[in-house]
């Protein structure tokens, strides 16, 4: 692969002078911003594809949109701020943005000795007939660990498409392939926006493969299927929310990452639960202070999901319209008139088994502890929602809905 297509790494260290409380406060604001955007995005996707498995990375999508927003102005920027919920969520937007990038860079750098792999790939590809501002290109390099790439869509669109796909494949350990399908980039393309995120981790408490048995998964009240169901018993963070008719279970990976499963009480309760989903409810589901360690009998499916999205129509429906039209104001990116985003592709994949999870994508009520804790049962044998997130601040890397394994 040509050298100029390789990602540059920028190891970052957070200053020890930063007060822990300040860091947590800022990251909570960032998490809330991602939660707002993720809720909106999820509900819009569900409208167009009801009862379909969904899996995507709200953090990756939001990060790349913010990368573009750094070069936007006027109405275009205002629309992006509204959709991304960044205009009112932080007392200091600049401080939040800088701390988000710092936090991500820390996760991506210095992974030697870590028990997980995490990669976030951001790329902006523009036709060589456009001249991009040096200041913006430098911003991509320094703040987003990404580079703008000159390509020749006008004369070699197919070759450039294959290069972009190979670039993403290489940087996601082969998990994300063919991000841009045949004909998705052509001579009329001006700019292609790419995002991909890759995670591979092992459960802190692995499932014993000998306990994996065939079991019934209820797709709905009238349809069921036989699948491989994993099971184990142990101490896990758990929360029951009878007022919204669901249970929440946190399955930790080794290190500060986890999977959170939100399971409706009823077989057909997921759509009702999704209709009630709000950023505040997401926080209730996942905050450490709300979940209590319990003895839990866990049963859940082994599953694989793969999904791809052309997000332009969805973002338009959310209100981000100018970005994809001729009146887009991207004057901070280039002085060239008529610059628009011609494509926004996102592809995701997850594989959950007894050892852990491998995922890729190119988003309170207290329970009192009794002296003799009740043993809880968590049987995920019907549709549920799940997240892959950072445990300490519930920063969502991946979000999914499983209707049918």
Structure description:
With 405 residues, the protein is of the alpha+beta class. It contains 9 helices and 15 strands. Strands 1, 5, 6, 7, 8, 9, 13, 14 and 15 form a 9-stranded mixed sheet that branches. Strands 2, 3, 4, 10, 11 and 12 form a 6-stranded mixed sheet that branches. Helix 1 crosses helix 8, helix 1 packs across helix 9 and helix 2 runs antiparallel to helix 3. The N terminus is likely disordered.
Secondary-structure map with pairings?
Layout: H1 20-48, E1 54-56, H2 58-69, H3 74-84, H4 93-108, E2 116-127, H5 134-143, E3 148-151, H6 153-171, E4 191-202, E5 213-218, E6 224-241, E7 246-252, E8 257-264, H7 270-276, H8 279-286, E9 292-301, E10 303-310, H9 312-318, E11 343-352, E12 356-361, E13 376-379, E14 384-390, E15 396-402
Parallel strand pairs: 2-3, 4-11, 9-13
Antiparallel strand pairs: 1-15, 2-4, 4-12, 5-6, 6-7, 6-9, 7-8, 8-14, 10-11, 11-12, 14-15
General shape: elongated
Give the helix/strand class: alpha+beta
Number of distinct beta strands: 15
Radius of gyration computed on alpha carbons: 21 Å
Helix content: 25-40%
Major β-sheet, in short? 9 strands, mixed
Summarize the structure.
The chain has 405 residues and is of the alpha+beta class. The chain contains nine helices and 15 strands.
């Amino acid at each position: 692969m040509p050298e100029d297509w390789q990602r540059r790494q920028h190891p970052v260290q957070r200053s020890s002078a930063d007060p822990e409380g300040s860091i947590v406060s800022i990251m909570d604001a960032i998490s809330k911003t991602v939660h707002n955007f993720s809720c909106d995005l999820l509900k819009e996707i569900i409208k167009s594809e009801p009862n379909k498995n969904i899996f995507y990375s709200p953090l990756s999508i939001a990060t790349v949109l913010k990368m573009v927003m750094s070069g936007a102005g006027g109405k275009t920027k205002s629309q992006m701020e509204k959709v991304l919920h960044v205009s009112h969520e932080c007392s200091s937007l600049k401080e939040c943005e800088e701390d988000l990038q710092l936090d991500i860079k820390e996760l991506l750098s210095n992974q030697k000795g870590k028990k997980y792999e995490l990669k976030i790939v951001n790329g902006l590809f523009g036709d060589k007939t456009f001249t991009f501002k040096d200041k913006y290109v430098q911003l991509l390099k320094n703040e987003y660990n990404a580079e703008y790439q000159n390509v020749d869509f006008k004369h070699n669109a197919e070759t450039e498409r294959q290069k972009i796909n190979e670039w993403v494949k290489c940087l996601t350990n082969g998990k994300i392939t063919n991000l841009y399908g045949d004909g998705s980039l052509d001579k009329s393309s001006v700019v292609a926006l790419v995002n991909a995120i890759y995670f591979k981790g092992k459960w802190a408490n692995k499932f014993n493969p000998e306990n994996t048995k065939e079991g019934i998964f209820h797709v709905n009240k009238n349809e069921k299927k036989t699948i491989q169901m994993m099971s184990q018993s142990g101490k896990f963070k758990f929360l029951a929310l009878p007022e919204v008719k669901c249970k929440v279970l946190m399955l930790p990976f080794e290190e500060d990452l986890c999977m959170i499963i939100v399971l409706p009480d009823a077989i057909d309760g997921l759509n009702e639960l999704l209709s009630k989903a709000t950023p505040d409810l997401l926080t209730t589901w996942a905050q450490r202070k709300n979940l209590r360690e319990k003895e839990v009998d866990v049963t859940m499916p082994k599953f694989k999901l793969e999904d791809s999205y052309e997000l332009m129509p969805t973002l338009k429906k959310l209100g981000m319209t100018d970005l994809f039209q001729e009146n887009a104001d991207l004057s901070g990116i280039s002085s060239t008139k008529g610059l628009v985003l011609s494509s926004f592709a996102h592809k995701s994949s997850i594989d959950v088994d007894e050892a852990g999870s491998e995922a890729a994508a190119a988003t309170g009520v207290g329970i009192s502890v009794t002296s003799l804790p009740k043993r809880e049962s968590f049987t995920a044998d019907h549709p549920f929602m799940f997240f892959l997130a950072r445990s300490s601040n519930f920063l969502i890397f991946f979000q999914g809905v499983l209707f049918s394994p």
